[in-house]
Amino acid sequence: MPKIVDHEQYRKELLDKCFDLFAEKGYGSITMRQIAEGLRVSTGTLYHYFPSKQALFEQLAQEICEQDLSTALAELQGAQTLQESMEALGRYLVKNEDYFIKWTYIWIDFCQHKDSKEMLKNSIFKRNNQRYQKVIGDLFGIQDSVLASFVLSFVDGLILEKLWGNETIDFIEQCALLGKMLTVYLPQYPAEIKAQTHVLSSLES
Amino acid sequence: MPKIVDHEQYRKELLDKCFDLFAEKGYGSITMRQIAEGLRVSTGTLYHYFPSKQALFEQLAQEICEQDLSTALAELQGAQTLQESMEALGRYLVKNEDYFIKWTYIWIDFCQHKDSKEMLKNSIFKRNNQRYQKVIGDLFGIQDSVLASFVLSFVDGLILEKLWGNETIDFIEQCALLGKMLTVYLPQYPAEIKAQTHVLSSLES
Amino acid sequence: MPKIVDHEQYRKELLDKCFDLFAEKGYGSITMRQIAEGLRVSTGTLYHYFPSKQALFEQLAQEICEQDLSTALAELQGAQTLQESMEALGRYLVKNEDYFIKWTYIWIDFCQHKDSKEMLKNSIFKRNNQRYQKVIGDLFGIQDSVLASFVLSFVDGLILEKLWGNETIDFIEQCALLGKMLTVYLPQYPAEIKAQTHVLSSLES
Amino acid sequence: MPKIVDHEQYRKELLDKCFDLFAEKGYGSITMRQIAEGLRVSTGTLYHYFPSKQALFEQLAQEICEQDLSTALAELQGAQTLQESMEALGRYLVKNEDYFIKWTYIWIDFCQHKDSKEMLKNSIFKRNNQRYQKVIGDLFGIQDSVLASFVLSFVDGLILEKLWGNETIDFIEQCALLGKMLTVYLPQYPAEIKAQTHVLSSLES
DNA sequence: AATGAATGAGCGTTCATTCAT
DNA sequence: TATGAATGAACGCTCATTCAT
């Protein structure tokens, strides 16, 4: 293997560490010096691995998309009923609240970069969203895309409210409520969720 | 006698025009020069009316909170059933989609600015959120705060998805679905909504 | 009398009030707005009476020069011995400490304006200094110009030390010391000072 | 490896070159761009070495205090009598007239900057003045603090008069006069000055 | 590969000055 | 005469980026 492997690997390591940095200060506010300091390298080194701040950010955004959501969502499997699924979702959101808020910050930052937006919207971005919808469908046994969008939007909104400092929102309570409403709304809903067997492998596509 | 200008009124006019400017580029990215250009005044004039960029932004945030909530939501009154209410909400979201997306950008930008965040979270910010929740309660006859948060989060999420370029989301469809789910979930829900008479006046509090 | 008299008079009133303003902040640091506020007029009015900040400052410098020092120095007359004269000088300096420090600030500010410096150095400036030297000669019966310069420099230095925050300097003590030294140094000094009769009128020249 | 530059040394080189720049225009009037130009570096580089204009100025003030006092006054040693000492002082003042005038400008500028005044008056400023007084005492064998202040003020005043363009002042003549006056005033004064052996080392304290 | 010194355009902001009223 | 709104060049300072080492 040529040296390029090490280079690439190191680049990815740096990229990973950038997540928190961008999330905490925002694209516009964080400086390359601060990023370099956070990564424990010099600005020169940073520019050795990334041609520009914009490129670094876009690679980070890419990386987030590429990162397999499967490992994270794996926790949600195993529930026997929809209600249990939703309660697991609530616990999962609580546990990863910080991560989701940061993730949200970064995406929104990204969306304000119009040029890159158009560049990526059609590829990674949309694909990512579709994945989420699919995961929801598989995970919760919701095949109707409108219903999947409903759940997705609701979860987005929960995180957004938290991001806005709304401390009255309780993820567990809200997800439980969603579970109850869905259960009532979907009388045809099977007692046991059988469809989720291949959730993770379905993400590969 | 000086040039005849109603200082306060002109200030508000400028403020209104700032909304789009901030929304399009974000607080951190737009410059005072760009704002001045967008407003067709010099930077000096801009600073004549607003002591700093931060102050300008905060006044804008205030203004949005003060004004739009009541006037905008006024349109949602008049529905006879919850289902109708939700369908009106859907149409309202569609109609003001751009506005809400911009509004969302502005708030999120604001949140990444930590200093102002701490300064305002306790005042305008929280108060605004409480208002929204109250409006939802009054408007849709939902008194349960958990349920109100549910609806609020759902609406937030719809907008966020749109902001993220998710074009598969249909506000009307989604709101209709919410209506159906709520109707099923709340069998005790009265056929006619009577509670909403004083929605707007309740905003005064 | 034409209106110009009022104009001129008002101009001088404004000028007088500028003394403290310039002295406290310095030419470079004070703004025309601050001056206008201190004068209780608008900037427009300020510019109606003075064509520019520089001109205002130069007129002030002129004014200070023109102001008859006689009234102030009059207090120093009446001493019967050199020692008494010097003690009176000490008390006088203590009493007007603030004024002299401000006066010194303004002059030094003025000296840093090279253009105006050259313009005025030869006229008002030098004449002013000669006057001081003359006053010292007449007042203290010191005819030797070197000795007069000595006393002048010493007094300048006392004020400068105070301006620099040296709180250990005691004007009265220092002037008394000067008196003693001069008395010892000038054994031929007459017991009574007779030469000072026309001190004030000599300033007219 | 970075560009090979001794950061500290280069910083001091820049600092030295700043002396004239500040002296000629004054703290308030000179701009960082002008300083950068005078130093033949970019503003960015200037800020790479000094965090702010104020800090640059304070470091300069420090530097002056630390360095010049001892090295400069070293020249004054070696006189056998008070009269000789004073004549050496006169020659020294003539030789360094420009330097002292600039030095005076710098300090006065500094004093009109209130914030820094309060910050430093207690530290560098006062300490510096005390040192000067001590040097005078040691150098001229003057132990009485009132007398030391007298000499200090007189020297300050000489420089101030020169700064004000008074060309009739002759440092040598004036210092010789001071010498004579002191000699007459201090009959107890020893024919040979013995106390000054350790003047310079006394500055260490 | 790695460093950090160097750059300069551009930021938020100020302020002497002008001018419509 | 008097006002204060308006201007824009210039301020102190920042920061993405380049480059000599």
From TrEMBL, chains A, B, C, D:
One term of GO molecular function: transcription cis-regulatory region binding
DNA-binding as UniProt keyword: yes
Species for this entry: Nostoc commune NIES-4072
Origin superkingdom: Bacteria
Keywords linked to the UniProt accession: DNA-binding
InterPro entries assigned: DNA-bd_HTH_TetR-type_CS, Homeodomain-like_sf, HTH-type_TetR-like_transc_reg, HTH_TetR
Domain HTH tetR-type: 8-68
Pfam families hit by this protein: TetR_N
Protein's name in the database: Transcriptional regulator
SUPFAM superfamilies: Homeodomain-like (SSF46689)
Segments of the chain annotated as binding DNA: 31-50
Keyword DNA-binding recorded: yes
